Every structure is written in C-alpha cells, then in structure tokens.
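agent> Task received from the user: take the single chain below, predict its 3D structure, and emit structure tokens. No templates, no multimer pairing.
agent> Plan: (1) validate residues, (2) run structure prediction, (3) serialize to tokens, (4) report one or two observations.
agent> Step 1 OK, no nonstandard residues flagged.
tool_call: predict_structure(input=
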Amino acid sequence: MLSPAKMKFRKQFKGRIHGIASSGYRLSFGSFGLKAVEPARVTAAQIEAARRTITRCMKRVGKVWIRVYPNIPVTQKPAEVRMGSGKGGVEYWACRVYPGTIMFEMDGVDESVAKEALTLAAAKLPVLTKIVARGV
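)
tool_result: status=success, residues=136
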C-alpha cells in the first residue's frame, strides 16, 4: 500500500476539508477519469482496492494513473485505554480529497470498458464520484 517514505513530523492534527479542489481537477494524462463530488478522507487501502479493481476490469490493457496520494498519518489509541497518556500511534495513511479532485485516470481502453471499470472502482471508495471523459 501507499505510504510516505519519510515525514518531517510523525503525527498531524486531524484538520478539516473546506472548499473545492484548486488543483488536480482536470484530466492530465488519460482519456477517462474518476472525479470526487464530495469531500472525504480516503485511506491507502481504499485507493489500492480501487486500483486493483480497475486493472482487473481492464484485463491489464491500457494505463492507469493514481492522482491522489495518502500523505496524512491517522492515529488511533488502543481499545480500553484510559484518558491521557498522549496521542496514539499511526494506524493508517489517508489523503484529503476535495470536491472536484480527479482520483484516477485511464487510457488505452474503449469507453464501455472504462466506464465499467471506474463504476466498480467507485464502489470501493467512501466518496461520491462521477466519471469524466476528455472532450465531452
């Protein structure tokens, strides 16, 4: 799964997702893309599950680009631990997805295969999405 190799600080504040995407809102590489419609925090496992679904549906023909990267450490304290004693350890990595962000792009397959693959991938993600195509 995706995770940063090195971070300046191990733990971060939770933060909020306000506004819309200011970058990464246009197709840059492929002909078809999966665009987020609402804000959410997407984990590395969810990104990997969607990527596997896309490549399996495409039968490894064409190319896939992942346009989001999980760079936010999410911490959790163990179950039944008393209050205090600091912040928990890093459990998983996530990325903040703003409305309008292109999450996945693909090229080299026809439109019906692309729509089916992106629809199946959207079911793996915790965010409402829509399929976008170049020149439409």
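agent> Step 4: summary for the user.
The beta strands are 32-36, 40-43, 63-66, 72-76, 89-97, 102-107, 129-133.
agent> Done.
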